[in-house]
Amino acid sequence: MLKLDSNQWNLIYNIFSFGLVSMLACTIYTLVSQQRVLAKYRNALVMSSMVTFIAGYHYMRIFNSFNESSADMTVNVSGAQGSFNEAYRYVDWLLTVPLLLVEVIAVLALAKEVSRSLIMRLVPASAAMIALGYPGEVSNDQNTQVMFGVLSTLPFLYILYVLFVELGKSLDRQPAGVAETVGRLRLLLIATWGVYPISYILGMGGDATAEQFVGVQVGYTIADVLAKCVFGLTILKIARMKSIAEGMKEDH
């Protein structure tokens, strides 16, 4: 059981609310923007909408779990029935992180063989990264936390290699400005995904304190908004740039 002060409780309540409304708003925006890009780029926007919709659903579950596990600003984090359920985040990431990576491939409209090769490597690596992180997240043993933290970093490094080396080879044939935007997209991915291990580390060291719990939840939520909403809006920008370069009028 963690006793939060009023500022800590309100911060978590408000950050979960912010995460939920951000995901829902981004879902609606990317859905209504379908007609602003050529048909062949709409799959990327559909996947972006799926990412934020799935995340929005899980933030609703996280929000409810926080309320149901709280009484008099004391949060039950025991792992027993009725306690705060951190697994919702990992279920969300297991579904959304592969989709985020497929979004990048879809919006570039690469040759089918190249796209298939990239997807067949990125999706399993992203699933492994999330699956390996969860045992460390729910453990109270620091050695276990460190071990699974290191193990989950290995597929993350492989993902970066594929995005920066393998995908980089395919950017020369993109319209003017797209390669630069994709470069910024990859940097955004590193910057936002970098918040996750920082938040993970904040929760290490045995039983969590109230300060650690708040730090982890705030860090994960901010990273989610950046990695899903801002990432999705950048995908929309790339789709618009490519559509305009291929003859679509800017006022459509």
Please tell me about this protein's structure.
The protein has 252 residues and is an all-alpha fold. It has one domain: Rhopdopsin 7-helix transmembrane proteins (Up-down Bundle), CATH 1.20.1070. It contains eight helices and three strands; from the N terminus they run βααββαααααα. Strands 1-3-2 form a three-stranded antiparallel β-sheet.
**Helix percent band:** over 70%
Helix count from the secondary structure assignment: 8
Termini Cα gap: 54 Å
Number of E strands? 3
As a whole number of angstroms, the C-alpha radius of gyration is: 19 Å
CATH superfamily: Rhodopsin 7-helix transmembrane proteins
Order of helices and strands: EHHEEHHHHHH
- What is the number of domains? 1
Q: What would the CATH topology be?
A: Rhopdopsin 7-helix transmembrane proteins
- Average pLDDT works out at 83
Reported for the largest beta sheet, the result is: 3 strands, antiparallel
Could you say which structural class the secondary elements and strand pairing correspond to?
mainly alpha
CATH class: Mainly Alpha
* Beta-strand percentage range: under 5%
Question: Could you say what the CATH architecture is?
Answer: Up-down Bundle
- Low-pLDDT parts are none
Task: Name the overall outline.
Answer: globular
* Main sheet strand line-up: 1-3-2
